[in-house]
Amino acid sequence: MPSYRSRRIVDPVEQAYVEVMARQFGRANADHPNIQALRRIVPFDFFAMSGMAPFGLGVGRGVMLATDMPEDFIRKFLAEKLYPHDPLSFLVTPVNPWGSWHDLEPDALTGTGIPRIRALEREYGITTRTVVGFFNGDERYGGVTFCRSSPFSDNETFILEMATRVVHAELSDKFLSDMNSHMGLSAGELLCLGHFANGYDISEIEEATGYTTETIYSYSKSAAKKLGARARTDAVAEAMRRKLIA
Questions:
Q1: DSSP labels, 48-94
Q2: Residue 163 has pLDDT above 90, yes or no
Q3: What is the pLDDT of residues 122-146, one digit of tens each?
Q4: Quick one: 18 and 36 in the same domain?
Q5: In whole angstroms, what is the distance from residue 86 CA to residue 77 CA?
Q6: Tally of domains within the chain
Q7: Which of 182, 207, 229 is the endpoint of a domain?
Q8: Where residue 208 sits, what CATH number does that domain have?
Q9: Most buried among 40, 72, 103, 142, using CB within 10 Å?
Q10: Which helix (H) or strand (E) element contains residue 143?
């Protein structure tokens, strides 16, 4: 399954824990009510929603936010490193965010990895895949794959994109909240980071919180460690990206 890969998570044990969390999270949202309502308007067989919206958290190769695709299909697809051989990996661009196997020319079906991709699709009953990518400028941070044997109309793709952008933002925030809970930042650590973010110096934080200088330094140091940041300013920036502080 796709996994959360923060640029700052380097410990393999921590990464493994997060990958399990991401996998469970995606399955838990397979029956999201908005997706089910959307499905009644625009029918499709399977879907997979991935990526993290907050800037700087590892982009769209991050999290499987929601999916009902067969887990073994996704696992094998990733384990066998088939994504770079999938035409959809380069067809989807900021200018043309939609791509579909329905639209592929014959010469696009002769590349390395294509036979294996098609074999996996047949094995797990995956109908023709169509993808919409979500971009921040030129950077792709996520998207949604839809499977259906017949092509989607322009009206259908419009509805799919508008509806899933809302769900993507919601689930992105929810997963981020779950991740932040796992990190275990204390109220004191968050309070100090928040004051630093607002431009307070040590003496001002002492006055606002009643903490000693030693306590403030201790909180900022431990918060930076939990966030995987090298320095206090980096910790503040990371906390803001994660929406831990405003």
A1: EEEE--STTS-GGGS-EEEE-S-HHHHHHHHHTT-GGGSTHHHH--S
A2: yes
A3: 999 999 999 999 998 888 888 999 9
A4: yes
A5: 10
A6: 2
A7: 182
A8: 1.10.10.10
A9: 142
A10: strand 139-147
Task: Find the angle CA(65)-CA(241)-CA(79) to the nearest 5 degrees.
Answer: 35
Which own/partner contact pairs does 25-32 have at CB distance under 8 Å and 24+ positions apart?
Answer: 25/63, 25/64, 25/65, 25/175, 25/178, 26/1, 26/2, 26/63, 26/64, 26/65, 26/66, 26/67, 27/67, 27/71, 29/65, 29/66, 29/171, 30/66, 30/67, 30/68, 31/68, 32/66, 32/167, 32/171
Q: Is residue 101 part of a domain?
A: yes
Shared-domain flag, residues 27 and 145: yes
Whole-angstrom Cα distance, residue 69 to residue 67?
Answer: 6
Query: Mind listing the pLDDT tens digit for each residue in 195-240?
Result: 998 999 999 999 999 999 999 999 999 988 888 888 898 888 888 8
Radius of gyration of the chain (CA): 21
Which domain does 192 fall in, by range?
A: 185-241
Question: Is residue 213 within 8 Å of residue 206, measured between CB atoms?
Answer: yes
